[in-house]
Design goal:
24% strand, 6-stranded mixed β-sheet, Purple Acid Phosphatase, chain A, domain 2, single chain, 13 strands, 5-stranded mixed β-sheet
């Protein structure tokens, strides 16, 4: 018996890209989804993306580093309101907190950064980034082999799947020849921020994993799907999304810039700065 699972991550508020991924996955026989985190922020569709995944038999949700930042800010992480990156995150967070209900925020707060799934005789470790942290670049595409070997230290997993670095990757740890064994390490790529353009627009990425009760992994298909960039731009404009200039520039050019100088150049920066300060005071109960 075979089962097809859509493994996805890093939606980053891009509802249009997520809709295209889900449509492609279902057209290819996927009946279950695993979400490895970072559904939130940058684009305007965070809350709608959570709701859509909940409707589509998503059996795994993980907490990415951007979700974790919600709760680090709630816990009192210092904010520099002169730094446009801090201002941007708070401006986006304020919109998302206004749209989520409290029980949904509490559910996200409780999500793990790693989860073990056992299917088709395999023990599969699902992670947003690494087993013990959901941030950092230790598993970037050009990272040394030693970093990937650490994924399985102290673990009896047969395979690991992670996200975070926005690149579709297939690696393995060092092969043990006696007895022969290889641990697969797969990366889903990113739904919402691939930075890859075609003549039809931006690309969304995900992993279509086919599991078989006899052979284990029958296939791992790194899918790339076009989506309607103009629709996502219209959604950002209709929502009057904070710092939408940077978001729309990414959708049009494939270049993602979230540096402080670029964000601070937004003509509405003082307005967003005031909104961020007000929201932060509300979080602190002031």
């Amino acid at each position: 018996m075979q089962q097809k699972i859509g493994v996805l991550a890093d939606v980053h508020g891009n509802l249009t890209a997520l809709e295209a991924v889900i449509a492609d996955a279902k057209a290819n026989g996927v009946t279950e989804f695993w979400s490895l985190g970072d559904i939130t922020t940058f684009g305007p569709g965070t809350v709608a993306s959570y709701h859509l995944l909940q409707q589509e038999n998503t059996t795994v949700f993980l907490q990415g580093n951007w979700e974790s930042t919600y709760f680090e800010i709630e816990a009192g992480e210092p904010i520099d309101f002169g730094n446009a990156k801090d201002v941007a995150f708070l401006a986006w967070m304020s919109r998302e907190y206004a749209a989520f209900n409290q029980s949904e925020i509490d559910q996200i707060r409780q999500l793990p950064i790693k989860r073990r799934v056992e299917r088709a005789g395999l023990k599969i470790d699902l992670m947003h980034n690494q087993p013990n942290k959901n941030y950092g670049g230790d598993l970037s595409p050009d990272a040394p082999q030693a970093n990937f070997d650490k994924v399985f230290q102290g673990s009896d997993a047969d395979m690991a799947i992670y996200a975070h670095v926005h690149a579709q990757i297939m690696r393995c740890d060092n092969i043990v020849y006696e007895p022969y064994r290889m641990h697969r390490i797969l990366n889903t790529g990113t739904v919402g921020q691939s930075y890859q353009l075609t003549q039809q627009g931006m690309i969304a990425q995900y992993l279509l994993l086919t599991l078989d009760d006899i052979v284990g992994v029958a296939s791992a298909d790194f899918r790339r799907v076009n989506y309607d960039t103009s629709l996502e731009i219209a959604r950002a404009q209709q929502a009057d999304w904070p710092f939408s200039e940077s978001y729309i520039r990414m959708l049009k050019t494939g270049q993602f810039t979230r540096d402080a100088d670029s964000l601070a150049a937004d003509k509405r920066f003082p307005e967003y700065q005031a909104q961020a300060q007000s929201f932060y005071q509300q979080l602190k109960g002031e």
